Amino acid sequence: MNNKKVFRWWWSWESEKIEKWIEAQEGQGWHLVKVKSNLMRFQFVKGSPRTMRYVFDYQNNVDIDYKQLYEDAGWEQVYAKDNWYLWRKSYPADQPELRPEIYSDVDSIIQRNNRIKKTLITVGLVLIPILIMNMVVQPMWQIRTSILVVYLLIFILFLYGVNRLATQNRRLQGKSKSLKN
Q: For the whole model, what pTM was predicted?
């Protein structure tokens, strides 16, 4: 078996978790060659194990210099769609201290998390008029109740994501303050 396709569900607030999973695949000799379906399906080809750093970045507004900046620093773009970017860069396996980072400081990670939070909040707010229209148009109370339950679950999920990102930001701010002292 020289290639494999893996479906891997993950949440936008867990990007570090999926990055580590892809890096572990590389360490086992499974080289990432393609990403599909909104960052959920990964295609790998078998090769020699290698040490690669993978980083997801979420950007709302990308200018011309964005891609060039990372490529000049030796990063390879693996995926770019729907504001999500996946970058990779190799580094020596015997020197883990040289593991590259895209984010140069804690504030950059906080800014990324805030961009994701803003998107989750915006989508959640857009769903409110859709919910109201569905409730008004639907004459059967059983279906209205089902619609309401589904939307409430979606809102809870979005609020959970926003809360997780806010918690990560507070933790990062605490780390940043302790490093400065």
A: 0.80
Residues β-bridged to residue 56: 86
Whether residue 168 sits in one domain with residue 138 = yes
- Token pair in block for residue 87: 């970058």
How many structural domains are present in the chain?
A: 2
For residues 89 and 135, membership in a common domain is answered with: no
Q: Which domain holds residue 68?
A: 3-98
Verify that 51 and 24 share a domain, yes or no.
yes
Query: What's the Cα-to-Cα distance from 50 to each of 64, 72, 175, rounded to whole Å?
Result: 31, 21, 31
Residue 42 buriedness (CB in 10 A; 0-12 / 13-18 / 19+): buried
φ and ψ of 145, to 5 deg: -65, -40
Q: Do residue 119 and residue 72 come from a single domain?
A: no
Tens-digit pLDDT profile for residues 48-94: 999 999 999 999 888 889 999 999 999 999 999 989 999 999 999 99
